[in-house]
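Table S2 (text version). Query chain:
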Amino acid sequence: MQPKITIVYYMSVTVKIQDNSTLTKEQLMHAIENFDQQGEMIGNGYRNVIKILTIDGERYNIKEFKVPNLVNKIVYRFFRKSKAERSFLYAKRLLKAGILTPTPEAFVEYKSPFTFGSSYYISKQLEYDFTIRKLVDDPTCDDYDNILRKFTQFTYRLHQNGIHFLDHSPGNTLIKKEGDDYKFYLVDLNRMDFKTLSYDERLANFARLSPKDYMLEVLSDEYAKLIGKPREEVKERMLFFSQKFSLSFKKKEAFKRKYFFWRKKKH
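Corresponding structure-token output:
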């Protein structure tokens, strides 16, 4: 009888740390290896798990990306940069263009010879005051009109720099108040295009914000001024793209509830 042969593939680890980072590889790997047992969790961890960890007195934000499905395990292994690597590279590109984002520190990837496993993006933890979601939920908040106009100007600067932020949603712009001014920081960076945006692409980029009527009034007014287009025309196109996105989102959510009801959230 022939002996049974078991082939075991070991995961290799790729670690890339920003040149000016004070993190060491040993510190980073210790944090990753103990990721499940330590840190302060942000959100519910349904898709990706984000935690704040203190390493050598500094607070870091570590995002563990969900292990991809079988097809994407092969795609990310051989043909495409991982979400963690893209987040790291895009953060550096944003900062070079003068667009703020939490300081990129490192990324870590686990791979076998044939498939891709888990990955992590590490940045400095940013202490911020609120996100754009506050403006969506509360039109009576202090300095509402001014903040929203400055956010529109910030989005215009993205567009002028050829940055198409595909996840431009309420929770992905962090806002920090400094005196009478506001600083805007992008997070969740792995989905971006870098190109010259068309007129419709610019206006459609506001759709994920799901702006209410009172938001659209300000967004369209300010963006129309910036690009030199009629205000009503800009508002009408923004509304069209917002409604289109909202309908598509509701259909996707209904599909998930019907066919993926068995999925459970992490706690």
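Notes on Table S2: The chain has two domains: 12-124, 130-256. The chain has a mean pLDDT of 89.
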